[in-house]
Each structure stands twice: as C-alpha cells, then as structure tokens.
Amino acid sequence: MVSYTQARLDDTFAALSDVTRRGVLEQAGLVTTEKVRRVRNCRLGPRRLAAEAAWLERYRRPWDARFDALEQVVEELKCKE
Amino acid sequence: MVAGRMPEPAPMNRTSVERATDREIVVTRTIHALARLVFDAFTRPELFRQWWVPKSLGLTLLSCEMDARTGGKYRLVFRHGDSKMEFYGTYTEVVLHSRLTWTNEESGESGAVTTVTFEEESGKTLLVLRDRYASREAADAGMASGAYDGMPETFDQLDGLLVS
Questions:
Q1: Chain B residues within 8 Å of chain A (Cβ atoms)
Q2: Domains of chain B by start residue, with CATH
Q3: ipTM above 0.85?
Q4: Strand, coil or helix: B31
Q5: Letter string b/e over residues B32-56, b meaning 16 or more CB atoms within 10 A of that residue's CB
Q6: pTM here?
C-alpha cells in the first residue's frame, strides 16, 4: 500500500481542483490539464519549476556581475571621502 | 594550478531576481555604501561607465551621455564584436538620492520602464531595480535579451578577481 502525506496531497488536490488557481498554473505553463470524461488529468507543464529557476539564474548572473562592479566603484568613492 | 592561493568562495545570491508579475522583473541587491554614493554611481557618467558594463559581458562602452534630471535624456553606445548597439531614453522621475525612473526607447513600444529605488539603512543601501513591460510577451523577450548563456567560466573568473 502506497502512503502519502495526507495534508500535502489534500493541498495539492484543492489547488488543482479550484478552476481559478488551475487557470493561473496553466497560463504560466507550469501544469497542463486534460479532461477525459469526468476526470481531469493534471501534469507538470512544459515550463517546469527547474527550468524556470535556471532561466532566472541566467538573467541574475549578469546583474550580479554588474552590481559587484558597482560595489567596487562606491568602495573607491568611500576611500576618497 | 596555482598552489596555496585558493580564492575564498564569494557569498551566494547577493543579487536576487524575481518575476514579480507576468510583465514585471525585479532585481534586488544590498550595496555596502550610503545611498547618496550609490545614487552618484548611477547618475554621474564618469562613474556609471566604470560599472554598468562589466568586462565579463564582452561589451565595450564607447560613449555614455546622461542628463539625470526629470525630463533629461541618456544615450549609451556599445560595441559588441563588429556591431554597435545604442540604448537611449528619458529620465521621467529623478528624486535625489532616493529614486530614478527612465524609459528604454530603443525597443520602441515594447521597451521597459525602469525604476530604481535607493533605501538606506544602517549605512547600507537596498537597491531595488524594477523593469515594467507593456505585456507579458515583451517581458519574456526583455529577459531573454538580458540573459547571457555559456559564460559561467567568465563569471567565476570575475568572482575570483573580486575576492582577491
């Protein structure tokens, strides 16, 4: 017999059964759903969370480099004062 | 291999990025200096050009004109390989040492409006940079153009330089 943490499963089910929340997740590409007769199947969508995180990281790194350089410039200003 | 000179690991995630809404991207960083110094580094061209384009990005800043007053204009010209790129716009709000808003007009209608706030606390400045786009599609495209692939080595080198 497979056992799940009941509370977490309930939360997930509640989120996915709510039409508004499901719409938000679908729109973000995080889940895809398909209705087969009376059953709606939900799957992780094309933009999975890991991909989303990697995407943000590629954007973050140049900003990090830029702000490191900014930190150096203001450090020099502090020394001059 | 250089023996006996291992760089200290740089603190992780000093800069954070969040997709605040589907058309808004927020970049946050704490800078260890007073707000007026950080503000100067954003608004004085001779300082701005020293940091806005770190060498690791492979771009050269050819010219940098900025008139950081409400209604003033800016124009940056970069060289990347054999091509030139221009970025320009208008400062729509300038509040001394606390807030800057500028438009990014080189992309036409799809360009973001950038707002930077400088919040000083205990001698440090919390920098929040917010790019607000007209649509979700424009935000996706803006993020794609601001992301650099295949450069982790370069960034590691930079981290090494900064901690040494």
A1: 14-19, 22, 25, 27, 29, 31-33, 37-38, 40-41, 47, 50-54, 56-57, 127, 129, 143, 146-149, 151-152, 155, 158-159, 162
A2: 15-141 (3.30.530.20)
A3: no
A4: strand
A5: ebbbbbbbbbbbebebbbbbbbbeb
A6: 0.71
